Automatic annotation (TrEMBL):
It comes from the Bacteria. This is Transcriptional regulator. Residues 39-93 form the HTH cro/C1-type domain. Keywords: DNA-binding. SMART domains: HTH_XRE. GO terms for molecular function: DNA binding. The lineage of its organism: Bacteria, Pseudomonadati, Pseudomonadota, Alphaproteobacteria, Caulobacterales. PANTHER family: DNA-BIDING PHAGE PROTEIN, TRACRIPTIONAL REGULATORY PROTEIN-RELATED-RELATED. CDD domains: HTH_XRE.
Amino acid sequence: MRPQSFSARRSVTQTLVTAETVMEEGGPDRLDQALGLAIRLRRHARGLSQSALGEAIGVSFQQIQKYERGTNRVSFSTMVRICEALDCHVADLVAEVEQLDTGDKHEGQDLLTQPEAAPLLEALAQIRSPGVRRAVLELARSLARES
């Protein structure tokens, strides 16, 4: 086998280092999936489409889809831009990831496939008062603890 030239090795290394796709055995990393779900839930709560979020941070809607599925990793700079567009702090998003990630597939990761999810998120997105939104969130958390 012929040795690779320096430029060929550099090209391969750059490709490996800059590739954002995360494919481990069986698919995306669970933390990347949890972050994607947290982003998706926040986006829905704000009433933004994938296109609108993508435009706000300078990427395509397809890239937002990949972030939300966890198939592409979100860099820190991109996470900051996403949080700015979603009007939240990075710490809030990280806290949501910690809640969603239990090490195994969490029931919440299937939330958006449930028939009640879309109407609930649409209704929440229509609430303009931050105080009322917080009250709805606290009510939901209280009901979740009791069930």
